[in-house]
Design brief:
CATH superfamily of one domain: Listeria-Bacteroides repeat domain
Number of helices: 2
Structural class: mainly beta
CATH class of one domain: Mainly Beta
CATH topology of one domain: Immunoglobulin-like
Strand content: 25-35%
Radius of gyration: 35 Å
Largest sheet: 4 strands, mixed
Strand order of the largest sheet: 2-1-4-3
């Protein structure tokens, strides 16, 4: 029996030794090979490490003439992305995308470089072009300017040309802001909405005037633009310790000049002694909003549906046509027959960017600042 026992003990020892060798083999380092996948079998790099360590990702990116690198994949076709981890030795393949070129064309388009992007990728919005006598109206994918290009969602699948769209500007009103600062203000109709009120440290804005002596105020409800002209901002110096007015100063009024083309506005209705009033909504060219009739005096009103106007974003209801004070539907109360006016933002930044560079940036204006509707949008030319 003793020889049998010895043999059994020797067999157990051998099996234990083999198990230990296998265990050491499983816990050893593995190698992940990264192939260029460029119609060759060339290896870009290989990384050795412990399984599952999460360090199997090259520091650099490969290059292939005529293609854009599109990431690492577990298959040559680029369908299964590689995440950077491995539990065993594997092969990883570079993904490649054929590039497409996007060019920009149209009147006023100069020094705007074309873009090389991966097929199926997004295009970065270029700088806005400038064209004398027009305002920029966005980029379009057709020469007839009927299909706007949305840079946030549209992808390119082939070489593409985008065309600049323009809206006609009949006249330029130069706004004189004081201290030699000016701002061009393009308009396309005789009656215009007031520009956003400027700011000046130590002063309150006092309105727009036709003359530098501030004797002839401009009435935006009545006065008509007849050609290129100047408007001058009046500034009222603050007294020591005085706080600047939080909102735009009321527009000064004067006796309207006769006009054969524009009907005179009717006088604002005086508060009625009735216990019920009518609220009218001026949608400003958007979808019509029905008036509220028989509103009890001293009561609040519910907010109507937002009006819709192509090319504009609705920005709320205001108490006056100058858009100085917003109507609060939760707290403001009706005490007379009133009209509420819409505030809109043009969906594209209009006449911004390069025009201020050409003006040597004498007036600092944020390109993303919401601005009141400044002109009527006409057919593209």
């Amino acid at each position: 029996m003793k020889p049998v026992i010895k043999v059994l003990c020797l067999l157990v020892a051998v099996l234990a030794l083999c198990a230990g060798c296998a265990s050491n083999s499983d816990d050893g380092p593995i190698e992940v090979s990264f192939y260029l996948n460029d119609d060759t079998e060339d290896v870009f790099t290989a990384i050795t490490g412990q399984p599952g360590s999460g360090v199997f990702m090259p520091a650099g990116t490969p290059n292939r003439e005529g293609y854009l690198f599109n990431g690492w994949f577990l298959d040559k076709e680029g369908k299964e992305p590689y995440t950077g981890t491995a539990d065993e030795a594997i092969s990883v393949y570079a993904g490649w995308a054929a590039p497409v070129e996007v060019t920009f064309a149209g009147e006023g388009v100069v020094m705007i470089e074309s873009q090389i992007v991966p097929k199926g990728g997004l295009v970065a919005p270029p700088i806005e072009p400038f064209r004398d006598g027009y305002f920029f109206n966005g980029w379009f994918e057709d020469e007839l300017l009927t299909m706007p290009w949305d840079f946030s969602v549209r992808t390119v699948e082939a070489d593409t040309t985008l065309y600049a769209g323009w809206g006609g500007v009949e006249h330029i009103v130069t706004l004189h802001l004081g201290n030699g600062m000016t701002e061009p203000f393009p308009v396309s109709g005789p009656i215009i909405d007031p520009p956003a009120a400027p700011n000046r440290e130590g002063y309150n804005f006092g309105g727009w005037y036709m003359d530098e002596s501030f004797t002839i105020p401009w009435d935006f409800m009545i006065d008509e633009i007849q050609g290129d002209m100047n408007l001058y901002a009046q500034w009222i110096e603050l007294a020591p310790g005085e706080t600047p007015a939080p909102t735009e100063a009321p527009k000064p009024t004067r006796t309207p000049r006769p006009s054969s083309n524009t009907p005179k506005p009717t006088a604002t209705p005086k508060p009625s002694s009735s216990s019920a009033f009518t609220v009218t909504f001026d949608a400003g060219g958007g979808t019509a909003i029905a008036s509220y009739a028989n509103v009890p005096s001293g009561s609040t009103i519910s907010k109507p549906n937002d009006p819709v106007r192509n090319g504009y974003t609705f920005g709320g209801w205001y108490k006056e046509a100058t858009l100085s004070n917003a109507w609060n539907f939760s707290s403001d109360k009706v005490t007379a027959n009133i009209t509420l006016y819409r505030y809109v933002q043009y969906q594209r930044r209009v006449f911004r960017g390069l025009v201020y560079q050409r003006a040597v940036q004498l007036y600092d204006i944020s390109a993303d600042r919401a601005h009141k509707e400044r002109f009527h949008v006409r057919a593209l030319v």
